[in-house]
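Thread: adenosine-5'-diphosphate complex, take 2
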Amino acid sequence: MSDINRAQILDILASINDPVSHKNLVAADMISGLAIKDSMVQFSIEIGDPSRADQMEPIRKQAEEAVRNLPGVISVTAILTAERAAQKKPAQPQPQKKETGTGAAEIRHIIAVASGKGGVGKSTTAVNLALALKSLGLAVGMMDADVFGPSQPRMMGISGRPASDDGKTLEPMENFGVKSMSMGFLVAEDQPVVWRGPMVMGALQQMLNDVNWGPLDVLVVDMPPGTGDAQLSMSQNVPLAGAVIVSTPQDIALLDARKGLNMFKKVDVPVLGLIENMSYFLCPKCGEQSDIFGHGGARDEAERIGADFLGEIPLHMDIRTTSDGGNPIVVSDPESAHAKAYMAIAEKVWGKLSSGEGQPAGPKISFS
Ligand SMILES: Nc1ncnc2c1ncn2[C@@H]1O[C@H](COP(=O)(O)OP(=O)(O)O)[C@@H](O)[C@H]1O
Ligand SMILES: [Mg+2]
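Output below.
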């Protein structure tokens, strides 16, 4: 495999023009912080004025795409920054180092709920898992890392905007005793002051570090779908204790779940196990079970690759209506079989976390 070098990356970025100066991004001196680690590339595009963010977002995407197409590149994270503009204005008070927010300092375990692709029920599973962990008596938070398609406000039944006492840090929102933070709480108004930049990767970091999470036993992170840059970057920058992979039987068959597993393996995040969602169809009328997609694939797949199988959740209308209606089944019908399935998974996950299995320093699951 060819090694990627800076010159190749700058060459390709020099083929993209800044719509304002009409110079290319390199000639306009807009590229900074270029870092290459293994096959992963990161850089910033300096936009000067933060109000240009919307205009520059397509350019950022184009730049990411162009670099991603270079041979040997696995992932690319480009962020828009307006740092130099801030530095050029010495008359303005420099932002203080944040000392007020508790950030992630008091979070014991951060776990990612991920999937190979979208629509497999990752958010539904993440929410019910978080609520099930809460019902074990744990202090739980949820972070919606799906910044482009946030679903936590709807599923957690939370609306409104987070408060900020100091203009620098945000108070998490809360429902059912679970703290929650999502871009969905912030996107309604165009430029919330507390968010330093409009950028996605920055947003993930800020959701973790600039939110007063307080002491938590577990923070459940609902990851964006897929195995792309956001996930990789998240797992590199955030001290993840482990990942839970959600997949449907079809997804297993199509090997999408395997991609998710491999991604975490690549960045040394232990995989706590697999959950099979929409595993089988439970007829709401007669209670009969139908294995529409050929149920049980996740258990076999987990076994084959040496990951744990955490449990299966049926495809059932009640699961959809409750989570889509902001009253997930674990809280709306805790005695139901579905809620109990989530509870059993939560117990397994907590068992692993509390025994240190998910700790970065602990034993890692490796896949051959
Ligand atoms: N086990 C299930 N039974 C029935 N519907 C489900 C189940 N899991 C998820 N859904 C529904 O499928 C849709 C997609 O789920 P969602 O959690 O948003 O997926 P993702 O986050 O992976 O994109 C939602 O409408 C959700 O209510
Ligand atoms: Mg989702």
